[in-house]
Amino acid sequence: MMILRTLKHQPLHGYALAQYIKRTSNDLLRIEEGSLYPALQRLLKEDLVKAEWSVSSTNRRVRIYRVTAKGAKHLEGEVSRFERMFEGIMRVLARGES
Amino acid sequence: MSWLKQLFSRRRLYADLAQEIREHLEEKTEELVKSGLSRKDAESAARRELGNLTLTEENARDVWRWPTIEDFLSDIRYGLRMLRNNPGFAIVSILTLALGIGANTAIFSVIDSILLRPLPYADSANLVMVWENNSRHPNPHNTVSPPDFLDWDKRNTVFSGMAAMVDQRANLTGNGPPQEVVRQAVTANFFSVLGVNPLLGAGFTAENNQPGHDNVAILSYGFWKERFGSDSSIVGKTIVLNGHPLTVVGVAPESFYWFIKDGSLTGAKPQMWSPWIIPEEYHDRKNVGRFMTVVARLKPGATVQQAQTQMNTIAAQIEQEYPDFNGYWGANVVPVRMQISGDLRPALWILFGAVGFVLLIACANVSSLLLARAAAREREMAIRTAIGASSWRIACQLLAESVLLAVAGGGIGVTLAIWGTNALLAASPRNLLDLRSVAIDMRILAFAIGSTLVAGLLFGFLPSFISAHLGLSETLKEGGLRSSAGRRRGILRSAFVVVQMCLALVLLAGSGLLMRSFIRLVGVDPGFDSNHLLTFKVNLPFSKYGTDPKCLAFFQELLSRLSHLPGVRSATMNSFPPFSGLGAATGVRILSQPSLSRSDLPVAAVRVVGPDYFHAMGIPLRVGRTFNAQELAEPRHVVIINQAFADKYLPDVNPLGQKVVIYMKSNTESENTPSEVIGVVSDVRHMGLETPESPTVYWPHPELVYSAMTILVRTANDPLALVTAARNELQQMDPEQPMAAIATMDQLLGDSLSRSRFTMMLLAIFAGIALLLAAVGIYGVIAYGVTQRIQEFGIRMALGAGRRDILRLVLRQGTRLALLGVGLGAISALTLSKFLATLLYEVSATDPWTFAGTALLLIFVSLAASWIPAHRATRVDPLVALRYE
After folding, report:
1. What is the spatial distance between Cα B732 and Cα A98, in angstroms, rounded to a whole number?
2. Do A33 and B23 touch (CB under 8 A)?
3. Cβ of A63 and B19 within 8 Å?
4. Is any Cβ of chain B less than 8 angstroms from the Cβ of A70?
5. Which residue of A has its CA nearest to B24?
6. Burial class (CB in 10 A: 0-12, 13-18, 19+), B451
7. Residues of B with Cβ-Cβ distance to A14 under 8 angstroms
8. ipTM reported for the complex, 2 dp
9. What is the DSSP string of B69-99?
């Protein structure tokens, strides 16, 4: 879900994606970089992203991932589900405290 | 992307992925370099952070795969490559397995056909034979008398139907050359008791039970095909049997197989059935003896045990009511399957056990080979584990290899089995396995596949897997051949060899015992001269030769003509010649002895013979004389007895001149004239070489004019060369009279030995295979041990050991294994050989000579197998050996 969100914001290649997630989560989320690729491939398989080769800013040949329409819709669904779950949890916790 | 597209673009996907990951690594490295690390440090840091690259790539790839199938396929491909790179190993393993699995499947298919396959009758488990059995002269399958059958039928409540049959030979004329056929006369309910519907026609109806309406016949499928060319309009046609016309009312189905050898008066499979109404006079016990075979169907819910109990009661009742005819007679209920296969069971199960041993030995060999290869692949396995293979994947890999071997071996094995089984049947004598063919069907294939998988799994996979679990770093550090796992493997392999030796010895001992027994058997004197003796049957139909004088005259003339043929030394005849498997017996009253009731009388076999019988057959005369010309022309009430009769019933008395009443013609006293004993002849092994002769009396033909006799012609040369001439003579006398059951006495003798010979040969073949495999096994282990210890030998030789010493060292290992194996084998063989006891003739199941001999053989072969690698060990150049890694 996070990958999709990131990519929706800005299409990136693998390394950049890893760096971005690390930066924006303030180092709170340190994902194993190796697990990124299987995840990306899964998204590719499901047609939620598409990939193409191009040249990066540093003149490297990189594979850029871009969210597809299906991916965007999937992301919406995932986000809303997550928010609902989050709300549910918060409610229970809040209830518990009072 | 549809999955089809995915499949084809996969290569590109993988390529992209690989490049991607490489780029990632590069980029990371660059960053680290920028932040101050040296190139090398940056690289290792980057790699570490990225984690196991290969694993990552694989996991990413996994997204696109169908993991299980693809893994499996790649394992198979890898396995195939392995086998291709080691053709020697592959061929040896596959052939070994093929042998083991093939032999097992072949024997199992025979067992299946005889013991397991459903019989071609409805609900065959409920069919039983009912025999009579005399407690004083036990013959558990004694034929039944008509009055007893009728009484059983009336009084029982446990059978839903009882049918009786009598085999006869009859002459079929018309539609071709005259042919003697086996006709089974049956009570009209026969087919309904068996639950068999004819293939064509309506079969027997209740009407056929009425006199005058019984001139119908049902043909067997084989006979219909052979004689009438499967004529589909056969129903309603007329055939002429013994001069009587019969209408064909049915043809039995192809699968219908019915042949009860015990009690059969012809000893041959029936070719047609016709209804038989038991004549009125046969309802009286005074008039008739025991000659019918009875089959019955149990009522639903009734068990064989219940039937036996009830029949015992009924037989006891009858015994009380008719003490003269039924004293000591009881009934014996035998399930039909037991009847058909009973006496084959011990041999079959022994062969099955033997062949199981061969498979075990084969598997042990393959196991050993795999273990040896496992040693060489230790490094490979260690590296794979280091790269990231899970135990599961390695196990799957090994499994795939074993399965490949097993499947290849099993495939070849089944082919061997199919070819082998039919070859076996073709080679085995006709009376041995009364099977047309052994079809390989689903059950057998399942068995083959099952045994293949078990073999593959248990013996291919487990040892390899066990030995593949090893400490990673040790293996990578140590020289592969001398690792501790290698030692473990060595022990396993030695254990395998010991087990192989043990099993091989059991088989060798078993086959040795059978061989000794067979040799003993063949050496038994049959009591007559069986060389150059032609035999054939002539059965005169009642319609043409209804009177005694006509029969007598016919046979007399026939014998006279035959004896004058060139190449014929003498011609004679016997109602039941030796090795025909047929005979008749009855009670004999010796007048000079105290009177006994009819049922307490001693029993003797009765034979009716032609002129010059004893001389022509080479049966020595002990006392007295043989029949003279007058006695051979008309009934003069004389009889010749055999030594067994004299010893058993006339001990301490001069047998000549004794008068005996032989109750063959009738059960009533008055109709049996006493015969005078005029001579005593030597015993003849009538039933088979292993059965001692029972008391027998011989009558000349005129005394009891059988219309069916077996002609015996002693020839100067090959008996079969005289068949045409003999047939000519016969046809000149009566062109409609066929000759049947043509065989030489040597053939008949051979047939009677066929079962023993067959079992012995099969077991010997298995023992030979086992010996070969065990030798290969021990060779493998010793050879491997030598390669392991080459350095050691080099050191020893450098230190001054001579060739002899090295030889002795190596042989010591071989001897130890062999002795251990032989020792264990001897103990097992001694315990198991008692199962063989039923098949042995005059050889004890623990015969020490056989055991000693086979043990020595095995030790010798093992030493020979060990000697080759030992010899090679001595030829090693110490310098080379020392540097060997």
Report:
1. 127
2. no
3. yes
4. no
5. A15
6. buried
7. 20-21, 23-24
8. 0.79
9. HHHHHHHHHHHHHHHHH-HHHHHHHHHHHHH
Which residues are CB-contacts of B726 (< 8 A; sequence separation ≥ 6)?
B534, B536, B562, B565, B711, B713, B739
Q: What is the pLDDT of residue B95?
A: 87
Contact criterion met (CB below 8 Å) for B683 and B527:
yes
Cross-strand pairs, B181: B170
Nearby residues of B336 by Cβ (< 8 Å), 6 or more positions away:
B119, B121, B124, B127, B128, B129, B295
Q: How far is CA B798 from CA B515, B791, B794, B870, in A?
A: 51, 10, 6, 18
Distance from CA of A14 to the nearest CA of B (A): 7
User: Residue type for B39, please?
Assistant: R
Q: Which helix (H) or strand (E) holds B862?
A: helix B848-874
Q: Which of B197, B201, B277, B265 is nearest to B237 (CA)?
A: B201
> CA-CA distance, B310 to B316, in Å (whole number)?
10
Question: Which amino acid is located at B221 in the chain?
Answer: Y
List pLDDT tens digits, range B301-327.
Answer: 899 999 999 999 999 999 999 988 888
Structure tokens at B143: 């034929």
Q: Give the separation between CA B709 and CA B610, rounded to whole angstroms.
A: 9
On whether the CB atoms of residues B366 and B166 are closer than 8 A, the answer is no
Give percent of chain B with pLDDT exceeding 90.
32
d(CA B334, CA B345): 15
For B869, phi then psi, to 5°, come to -65, -30
Chain A residues lying within 8 Å of B24, measured CB to CB? 14-15, 18, 33
The helix (run of H) or strand (run of E) holding residue B291 is none
Q: Do B16 and A53 touch (CB under 8 A)?
A: yes
Cite the DSSP H helix spans in B377-471: 378-387, 391-427, 442-454, 462-468
Lowest mean pLDDT among B46-55, B219-228, B460-469, B486-495: B460-469
From the CA of A67, how many Å to the nearest CA of chain B? 15
Do residues A55 and A62 make contact, with C-beta atoms less than 8 angstroms apart? yes
- Candidates B12, B19, B23: best to mutate against A (most CBs of A within 10 A) is B23
Q: Is the dihedral of CA B106, B107, B111, B116 positive or negative?
A: negative
Name which of B67, B112, B52, B19 is nearest B444 in CA terms: B112
CA B439 to chain A, closest CA, distance in angstroms equals 52
Listed residue (B523, B504, B503, B526) closest to B515, CA to CA: B523
Q: What is the pTM of this model?
A: 0.75
Phi, psi of B6 (to 5 degrees): -55, -45
- Determine the distance in angstroms separating the CA of B55 from the nearest CA of chain A, rounded to an integer: 9
**Per the structure block, which two tokens stand in for B68?**
């299980």
Contact B602, B647 (CB under 8 A): no
A57: contact with B, CB 8 A cutoff: no
Selection from B574, B488, B511 nearest residue B538 by Cα: B574
Residue with tokens 């038991």: B278
- Strand pairing report for B244-251 and A61-67: unpaired
| Continuous segment of H or E residues that includes residue B714 | strand B708-715
Q: How far is CA B564 from the centre of its chain?
A: 44
CA atoms of B764 and B758, how far apart (whole Å): 10
The tens digit of pLDDT for each residue in B114-142 reads 777 778 888 888 999 999 998 887 788 99
H-only helix segments in A30-97: 33-45, 69-97
Cβ separation A34–B56 shorter than 8 A: yes
First and final C-alpha spacing in chain B: 54
Residue B147 and residue B325: Cα distance in Å, rounded?
10
Task: Say which DSSP state B876 is in.
Answer: -
CB of B621 within 8 A of CB of B663? Answer: no
How many residues in total does chain A contain?
Answer: 98
Handedness of CA B109, B112, B115, B119 (dihedral sign): negative
B696-700 vs B603-609, strand pairing mode:
parallel
Token duo for residue B359 = 């498979």
